[in-house]
Amino acid sequence: MMKRIGFVALLWVAFGLMPALAKDDFLRPEEAYRYTTRFEGQRLMVDWTIEKGYYLYKDRMGVTTAAPDVLFSVQWPKGEDHQDEFFGKQEIYRGQVSIPVEVNFGAARPTTLTLELKLQGCADAGLCYPPTKWKTTTAVPAATTTTVAANATPAKAFSMMARRPEEPMCLLMSISSNGLVIRWTHDGVPRTADLSTG
Q1: Whole-Å CA distances, 138 to 112, 113, 115
Q2: Is residue 146 included in any domain, yes or no?
Q3: pLDDT in tens, 99-157
Q4: Is the pTM of this model over 0.85?
Q5: Is the domain of 124 the same as that of 40?
Q6: Which of 13, 42, 101, 175 makes the best surface tag, with the fewest CB within 10 Å?
Q7: The most confident of 78-92, 152-166, 171-185, by mean pLDDT
Q8: Residue 90 sits in a domain of what CATH number?
Q9: 133 lies in the same domain as 163
């Protein structure tokens, strides 16, 4: 009888340890969900790498900043449809996903920007992580300006020459910087036309 009780107690201990051992097989959140941040012009990119067997809930993610005069507009890509046991129909992200964020800076453009990343995810094996907030700092590149070359200086006069077989001399036409056309015809008499007035 004592042997049977000891055997049952041993089974309870063994099965009681199984959840603890299984829990150790799961990755920590920072291992399951890794990210990098970078700027592409005015656009901030948050690149997520999600380990196989894990996923993130789209509606439980966020990108914010406490920096003054900085506005974010997050463009969430389409996720994978997922029927969740607790939250019902959801969109989730797996594998690689890039989140573009349009950034509108105020009067002063900072050199760095502190971000707060919100996330919540689960493992396919059944473990779900609580909602998490991570803070990170990313470098902000200097603003780039696009310079359009203006026609500040009028084009220099140019010449066009054409010759007709029946004409012994060349037809010469010159356009000056003030829009005046001078035509030298085969008879040697200059004729002008003003293009500046349309």
Answers
A1: 6, 5, 8
A2: no
A3: 999 999 987 889 999 999 999 999 999 899 999 999 999 999 988 754 333 344 443 43
A4: no
A5: yes
A6: 13
A7: 78-92
A8: 2.60.40.1250
A9: no
